[in-house]
Structure prediction request, 385 residues.
Amino acid sequence: MKIVSFIKKENLKSWLEKISKVSTIYLPIHDKKKDIIDFLSWTDFIEKKKASKDDNDERYEINLIEKTKKSPKYIFFPPTEKLFEFEYKKDIDDPELVNIDLKTSFNDVINIYIGDNNKKNKVDKKIIFAIRPCDLSALKKVDIFFGEGDIKDPYYLKRRKNTIFISLGCNEPYLNCFCTAVEGNPFNFEYADMGMIKIEDGFAILKLDNKVKFLIEENKELFENKNLENKYREKIDIIMTKAVEKIINYWSGVTIDDIHSNIEKNFNLDMWKTISKKCISCAACTYVCPSCYCFNIRDEQKDLKGERYRCWDYCMNYYYNLEASGHNPRSEIYKRYRNKVNCKYNYNYKRSGQFFCVGCGRCIDICPVGMDIRESVDKICRAKF
Prediction:
């Protein structure tokens, strides 16, 4: 990849401040008091910094090194989302007749989705800054679920529209990262509008799509554009090579070709019971997974008014497959765990030709009992009848 441009570390904040005035920008923010790193909008970040003066203004800071607790998927697919409000209204002339009054922005959502960008329904542009390649790959997989086929989800597509992704490569992969084992790479900028890599005192731009060139052209004074290959190429090549080698050294399990076919073949092995024995079905892994897309729809009502909302659901939940008859085809934990693994490495692979695990390692990081999906896949793929 050619080095397109370079911005020094001291100019980064000025650049972000400028582009935040024309777009809603989200970036990784570290809350030092809670020790949590998550994506936050620039506006919220500034407001939180102002409100935290009692903490010497050091509680919140931009963190472009460590892994965020969860992916920015929630920006487009919120954990809880109101779909519409409703109210039952009786007919005064005919009390037995009841009408339902719906209050919804669904028509606005549809207009935006089909391209009716009039002043009333205008969609704000969003920039997701410093998204990791694995998280961006995961979002593209969620796009398949919500945005392809005969039935598309206008709520999700409304949020996804007019989004710019500025991806930051992973110089220092974590111990639980394994993107290279699932067709990924710590510097895969295929889906990014802009791809960056950190080098010593700044950031080199390695990919720049035409639609985002304005982000640099309108802020030329903050960027360096001359003699970049001679100054930084060797350093970049070393960083990239070492990062990939680290991931491979962390885990040299089964190869890509082994996974789909062997998981399919070994579906009925008793080994599933063994490898999931310590799983407590808490579902923490599914909540931090950047490519999980399951949701439930519920109604909440008080008196004659209520609202319909959807919220994240998880296949590790006992009630996920509970039928009205009382029968549950996945009443045992090992069956639910087997389903989760197959969803990531088998079912969706057969549908789209892609693994729905991107190797971010968050499920391993968060598991309270030390379940490691890499070990599970490795054991199943190597098992013999």
User: Anything to note?
Assistant: Residues 6 and 204 are 4 Å apart (CA to CA). Residues 253-385 form one domain. Residues 110-123 have pLDDT under 50 and may be disordered.
